[in-house]
Amino acid sequence: MSDTAAVAVLGAGALGAAMATRLGATGHDVRLWNRTPEKAEAVAAETAGVTAVRALGDALAGASIVVTVLRDGDAVASVMSGALRQMDDGAVWVQASTVGPQSAAALADLARDRGIGYLDAPVSGSTGPARNGELVWLVAGSEDVLARARPLLDDLGKAVVHLGTGVEGSAVKLAVNTWMTAATVAVSDVLSLCDALGVDHAMLIRAVEPGPLTMPYELQKVGAMDDTSYAPGFAVQLALKDINLAATVAEPSPLFQAVRDRLNATIAAGHGKDDLAAVDFLRKPPSTT
After folding, report:
1. What is the dihedral of CA 165, 238, 236, 138, to 10 degrees?
2. Cα–Cα 20 to 30 A to 32, which of 86, 141, 186, 212?
3. Closest by alpha carbon to 80, among 28, 183, 72, 21?
4. Looking at the predicted structure, is the pLDDT value of residue 16 above 60?
5. pLDDT tens digits, residue range 206-224?
6. How does DSSP assign 235-247, residue by residue?
7. Angle, to 10 degrees, between the axis of helix 236-249 and the axis of helix 168-197?
8. pLDDT category, 285, cuts 50, 70, 90?
9. 135: closest CA among 22, 213, 218?
């Protein structure tokens, strides 16, 4: 880290909390704000370098970078419509929430009207990569604004993919999340096929790992599914939000509808806040013990 100025992180959900933790560990002065203050305070109580603030203005005062990690476009617009007026003139807004390209364009307009540097910058990766500084940034914005934010992005991520100057980051992020979600549902169904064929799941992994079909993320999901380990990473309810976003910009497809149905069924079974691996819950018969 080369800049000791304050960083404001707005949003203390799973990803925002992980980002704040990583930034605190790498020497940044982090102000963490959340609409439910207790969530930010719980993170700050366990994290060096992170201060929870209840007033939005206290998070923004003197901050050179403001990172938004909120649920959706409406939440970001609601917070930032007032926050932009309180940001320092030279600050950069790194918009890391998954909001889709339409909302990202509207948010960029808010920043432009205020004269604030803006990056459309969602990430590929969830809480674990965020804590370890291994996120992949999917960034759209001007080169000069990106250069100002680059030290912070590098502390949080292993790669910065500069995709354009508009809202290409949000467009690519939506495609990435849809691919990831559909693949995870497919993995669960393939495990059902393995069970019907009498194929051990470890044998499937051994067959796939050496070749071009390997997908490390999905192989991790096989382990989580077999262990019934659904600790929050990328929550089912957030995956559904993104699939619904995709449906607003693409022609409906039987695949997307099947994935949406599976996510809705998983949420109905009480797993909305659990990791996406919980889509496999429906494959397993209920316990009789």
Report:
1. 20
2. 141
3. 72
4. yes
5. 999 999 999 999 999 999 9
6. BHHHHHHHHHHHH
7. 120
8. low
9. 22
Q: Convert the pLDDT of each residue in 232-278 to its tens digit.
A: 789 999 999 999 999 888 887 899 999 999 999 999 999 999 999 99
What the block records as the tokens of 198 is 């009498």
Strand partners, 161: 138
Phi, psi of 114 (to 5 degrees): -85, -15
Instruction: State both tokens at 112.
Output: 């432009």
User: What digits encode the pLDDT tens for the residues 119-141?
Assistant: 999 999 989 999 999 999 999 99
Contact (CB, 8 A) for 166 and 121: no
Q: Residue type for 2, please?
A: S
Distances in Å between the Cα of 132 and the Cα atoms of 7, 50, 135, 183, 216 are 18, 16, 8, 24, 17
Neighbouring residues of 139: CB distance < 8 A, sequence distance ≥ 6: 119, 120, 121, 146, 153, 160, 161, 162, 163, 169
Spell out the residues 6+ positions from residue 120 whose beta carbon is closer than 8 angstroms to its own: 95, 104, 107, 108, 139, 140, 141, 166, 167, 168, 169, 170
Interval 70-117: pLDDT, tens: 999 999 999 999 999 999 999 999 999 999 999 999 999 999 999 999
Residue type, 74: D
Q: How far is the C-alpha of 44 from the C-alpha of 21, rounded, in Å? A: 8
Question: Going from the N-terminus, what domains does the chain have, and what CATH number goes with each?
Answer: 6-165 (3.40.50.720), 171-283 (1.10.1040.10)
Strand spans (E) along the chain: 6-10, 29-33, 50-52, 63-68, 92-95, 117-120, 123-124, 135-140, 157-164
In this structure, the dihedral spanned by the alpha carbons of residues 81, 83, 87 and 93, taken in order and rounded to 10 degrees, is -70
State which amino acid sits at residue 128.
Answer: G
